[in-house]
Amino acid sequence: MKLKFFLFVLLGVITTAQAQNSGTVSGKIIEKSTNTPISYATVSIKDNGKVVSGVNTDDNGDFSIKNLALKSYTIEIQYIGFRKYIGSVILSDNKKTATVNISLEEEATQLKGVNIVSERSTIEQKIDRKVITVGKDLTTAGASASDIMNNIPSVNVDQDGKLSLRGNDNVRVLIDGRPSNIDPAQLLKQIPSTSIKKIELITNPSAKYNPEGMSGIINIILHKNANTGFNGSYSGGITFGETAKYNQSLDLNYKTGKVNFFGNVGQNFGTYYNDGFIKRADQDIVQKIDVVNDNDSYLYKIGMDYLINDHNTLSIYTNQNKSNGKGFVNTDIDYNNVTDSDISNIYQKSKYTGPDRVGTYNLAFKHIFKKEGHTLDFEANYSDNKETQNASFDTQSTKIDNTVNSVIYDDYIKGTRKLSTVNVDYVNPLNEKTTLEAGAEARITRTGNDYITGNPLAALPVSDYTYDTDIYSAYVTFGQKYKKFSYQLGARFESYKVAANLNHGLEKFDDDYITLYPSAYFTYNLNEKNTLQFSYSRRVDRPSLEQTKPIREFSTPLVTSLGNPELRPQFTNSVEVNYTKTLEKGSFTAGVFVRSINDQISRILYPDEADPSQEKQIMTFTNYDHNTAYGFEVSFNYKITKWWDIQPSIDFSSINQQGVVFLYDPLTKTSSPLERKITVSAFNGRMNSNFKVNKRLSFLLFGFYRGAVDGLQNNSHEMYKMDIGSRYTLLDNKMNISLRFNDVFNTMKYAFDTMYPYPQSGQFKWESQTVYLGLTYNFGGAKIKNLQRKQREDNTNKGGGGMF
Predict the structure, then answer these.
(1) Residues 151-181: pLDDT tens digits?
(2) What is the pTM of this model?
(3) Rounded distance, CA 79 to CA 130, Å?
(4) Closest C-alpha among 197, 207, 203 to residue 217
(5) Is 259 exposed, middle or buried (0-12, 13-18, 19+ CB in 10 A)?
(6) CA–CA distance from 325 to each of 244, 391, 578 (Å)?
(7) Which residues does 481 contact at the CB level (< 8 Å), separation at least 6?
């Protein structure tokens, strides 16, 4: 007992003596512009560059660091969105406490808690991607992300809203680095243009990324509402075409203590009109098509970030989408002077209705090690997509003798898709010049389609189709930086298994393989303003459910769209060289690329073997033989004067294609396969010009040209348009009002001609000439930290069978 008492007293004496020979640094951190406390700012005490001790400020912005040796220190205070503070403190026998009260200044890009958007967009070449920071000139382009995509160099959007990169539509679309089960064309129409912060073009992705996507990845980064308290933003707009279309979005954020709650709700609704015709040249048959789509979609997201401590953050969210679409397709077919047909006219009214629901659930955990840049990320994601389509067809056939034959039937399709993903990613900067990254992923997809038709001519009135994939992968990348030179080498190992079953195994297709996907990047900085980059990667495009299911996607009396269950993946080896020059008043970028493509997935039309008249066609997908491609792109961003800046860009791509098409012989009335080998070339040009009248008012002029493309299957004609717009800001830049007149001269249209399988031509028009009026309003407070997540992407070629 005496011994214990003695040890207790001795411990107290030692502790008291240590306290008498140590010091304390305390203080308060506030925001300079508002004098409000900054919670969870990082305060570090350093001795000769090494961290001795550190804490985070509490909810009131206060901190205290005790038991410091009596000597001189450097104190650093950091917080995201604010300039770092570096100072010194001295502790001695005469001064054992030091008080440091600091007012942090916001970074130049931040102002009063609002997402500040620059006047004009900028382009920057990173080691593995091109980053377009979206300025107000692009957000004026229209209501949604789809509206502004044609303003981005190397990116095109067709009349159906489908994206292509460098002339190729085999491209992945990510939102904040993560995929969505929602069709990209539909998803981009739901994202307000004012919500976009950056657009990343990853034309040659490294082994760190999933290997899908021949032409690359488009990653759309949205503004993060990282404000304390209760704040957010609202955007809404009206597009005037044949009828008015509406869109609106509300982002809300609430931060208290260590918890950050966030939510978003968006809505798009309106009626869209399309019309066109297809004309046979060998027979006087004209097919006129009128399409009306009445769409109503809702998208909402709710989640929470929890800052466990300085090194661990947990985040959860759910993303829910619901769309109710009604499609009305009227097809009018005239048989003029067709001698071998007893039909003079076919008129079909079809209607497609049904909801599409997608629910996504995400859990993420991030651990930050003590060493800067040393992180471990875990993420689990589950998506559930349920799609129902009810279709009705009313076909009236009028014969030469004016007798009418009527066929009326209904179709029903029920589709499900469940995607489960688990990722682990590790980043370790071994030293200031060397970084090691590694990770693993499991991705399980289960899809099903039930099809019931009342079509009396259908071979299978009831069909069941499943398409399941199991993907397991692991990657490692290693990079080093020197004074002017840097490189990154990587490899991804992947096990891929697919199983397709039609009608419970009556028809099966299986594929199972293990593949290596290497990548390499080399960057050389000629000087501070000139950068040269070389890159190589191996990629794959796997067929999607839409491209493989042997169930009709749409149907007219003469054209039916089906998938091909026996589609093979296409593999691509890609080499790129890019150059970036930073100018005093802008930037210049240029690049060339070469690709070698095996088994390219492409569209094909062939005669319907079940049709004795040889008038009906099947639209599906096939694998072409080995192809090669090359191309270049050039973009320029320059501020001519204080009030005028321009952003011209051009891109060109050429593909040597070889594949089988079908050619119809009118004498024998049969179609035969034909091997073709051609060179397909595509050219695009854009000019974006902004005129600033004063601090509040500016104008925009945009021109676009897409050259004619002679393809393996058909020849597409040229397309071009001009837009004008204006923008007015008020309420201290918190509110923007935008007005844009799209396709001023109403010149946009898609026209084509072909010899395969029949000599025919056609043209389709949509509501390209529109007037858009939009409003955005932002509100917010001080800055906080948000969980930064890894980038993910999908695993299939997204081209579907949709025509409209």
Answers:
(1) 676 676 654 456 666 655 667 777 776 665 5
(2) 0.71
(3) 27
(4) 203
(5) exposed
(6) 17, 12, 43
(7) 433, 434
Q: Are the beta carbons of 255 and 290 closer than 8 angstroms? A: no
pLDDT at 406: 93
Phi/psi of residue 136, nearest 5 degrees: -65, -20
Give the contacts of 667 (CB within 8 A, at least 6 positions apart).
Answer: none
CA distance linking residue 43 with residue 64, whole number of Å: 9
- Which residues, in sequence order, are CB contacts of 432 under 8 Å at separation 6+? none
**Measured CA distances, 533 to 2, 127, 484, 563, 802 (Å):** 75, 7, 12, 40, 38
Burial of 29 (0-12, 13-18, 19+ CB in 10 A): buried
What are the backbone dihedrals phi and psi of residue 105, each rounded to the nearest 5 degrees, phi first?
A: -95, 140
What DSSP designation does 324 have?
E
Helix or strand holding residue 425 (H, E): strand 404-428
Return the SS3 of 59: coil
Segment 323-336, tens digit of pLDDT:
888 999 999 999 88
265, 232, 139, 241 alpha-carbon torsion, rounded to 10°: 40
**Secondary structure class of 556 (helix, strand, coil):** coil
Supply the pLDDT for residue 769: 94
Residue 346 CA: distances (Å) to CA of 120, 148, 399, 617: 53, 40, 9, 16
Distant-in-sequence, close-in-space partners of 627: CB < 8 Å, separation ≥ 6:
596, 597, 598, 600, 655, 656, 657, 658
Our CA angle for 331, 333, 339, nearest 5°, is 165
Strand residues in 400-506 grouped as ranges (E) = 404-428, 434-453, 462-481, 485-502
Spatial distance between the Cα atoms of 193 and 136, rounded to a whole number of angstroms: 10
What's the pLDDT score for residue 110? 34
- CB-based contact 295:323 (threshold 8 Å): yes
Q: Read off the tokens for 761.
A: 């031509």
SS3 state at 276: strand
How crowded is residue 705: how many other Cβ atoms within 10 Å of its Cβ? 15
List the chain residues with pLDDT less than 50: 1-19, 108-116, 159-160, 225-228, 781-786, 788-789, 791-796, 798-804
Strands (E), 666-747: 670-692, 697-706, 709-710, 715-716, 719-730, 735-742
